[in-house]
Design goal:
This protein is of the alpha+beta class. Helix content is 15%, strand content 26%. The strands form three sheets. The chain has a seven-stranded mixed sheet, with helices on one face. Helix 2 (63-74) crosses helix 3 (86-98).
């Protein structure tokens, strides 16, 4: 059952109120927004689909149908995909076109490959040439541009931040997808680079929503400079940033949220790891909610036609209401 969580829209700066500190071990959740002149609500859907690792680059093993089915059911405004193969991206694009999902059938999708240094990548159903997988963004509203940003090198893949500004939406809206490295020696630099761009977009008066596999859990000190100080719980404290993750008010694990993987890596509150996040600037937030969904085991097949989990990551979907006052 979906839980609605609401925060104040930076009331100290916006309407001159003084908000007391949250109790130790609690995430600040002061109640209904006050003095909000204009708002917009968006639904976000993110999935690291393990397009080659679990699905061998296939467009016919059930993965594409699983994605299109979930999108049809949840009807998001923005879609973020990680580890999606080029052929899968094009199949999803056509499926969304055929379903009439985008407002513009010719301007709603972006793909950015992440080439590997040893030229490995996605296989195909027919055994053709290997191509690098990447990140993809789909927007129900026609994008007014594209930001394709290469992150600091990790010696493995050309990791990317892919964003689309949407001029038709009020408040300077921009939606981004990223996939941060798992390599410890480069992770901090990549996280800093993405955070710097988000701060840049926010400082210019806009609202930026960024989804992706950050390969970093909420309680990791590397995310202290992301989460706002109002997120202060035993599961996630010491924060100094300007953003909220749209699951950080979840009562399953306050300040941390719900697991987004099913692997061996452990997280908090008796859960598996949470590395897939949707971040937005606290200064723009009115309310938000996020859930992760267990991985389907009866939709995708391996090369032998045996049903397998579609990915080792869960689908993440969120609803966020933001201020449109720049």
């Amino acid at each position: 059952m979906r839980r609605l969580r609401t925060i104040l829209l930076t009331l100290v700066g916006a309407v001159g109120l003084t908000v007391g500190a949250a109790p130790v071990g609690a995430v600040a959740d002061p109640g209904a927004p006050v003095g909000v002149a204009g708002t917009s609500t968006y639904k976000v859907w993110h999935w690291n689909v393990a397009g080659d690792e679990s699905n061998f680059g296939s467009t016919t093993n059930g993965l594409v149908d699983a994605i299109l089915g979930s999108v049809k059911f949840r009807d998001p405004d923005f879609i973020s995909l990680n580890e999606v193969c080029p052929a899968q991206y094009h199949a999803i694009l056509k499926g969304l076109q055929d379903a009439g999902w985008p407002q513009s059938s010719t301007n709603f999708a972006r793909f950015e490959p992440m080439p590997d240094v040893d030229h490995t990548g996605c296989h195909t159903d027919t055994g053709g040439a290997v191509e690098p997988y990447g990140v993809a963004v789909f927007s129900k509203f026609a994008p007014s541009g594209t930001d394709r940003i290469t992150l600091p090198a990790d010696g493995d893949k050309a990791r990317k931040l892919l964003c689309v500004p949407v001029a038709s939406q009020p408040g300077g809206l921009r939606f981004c997808s990223t996939h941060i490295t798992f390599k410890a020696e480069a992770k901090a630099a990549q996280l800093d680079a993405v955070r710097a761009k988000m701060n840049e977009f926010t400082a210019a008066g806009g609202t930026v929503i960024t989804a992706g596999d950050f390969n970093t859990q909420p309680h990791d000190p590397l995310l202290n400079s992301w989460y706002a100080p109002s997120v202060a719980t035993p599961n996630n404290g010491g924060n100094t940033g300007t953003f909220r993750e749209l699951d950080d008010l979840d009562t399953v694990c306050p300040g941390w949220g719900e697991q987004s993987t099913e692997g061996a890596l452990l997280g908090k509150c008796g859960q598996k790891a949470k590395v897939d996040h949707v971040f937005a600037p606290e200064s723009r937030l009115v309310s938000y909610d996020e859930d992760t969904h267990p991985i389907a085991t009866d939709r995708c097949t391996n090369r032998n036609g045996v049903y397998i989990p579609c990915s080792n990551h869960r689908i993440v979907d969120a609803t966020v209401t933001v201020s449109t006052e720049q």
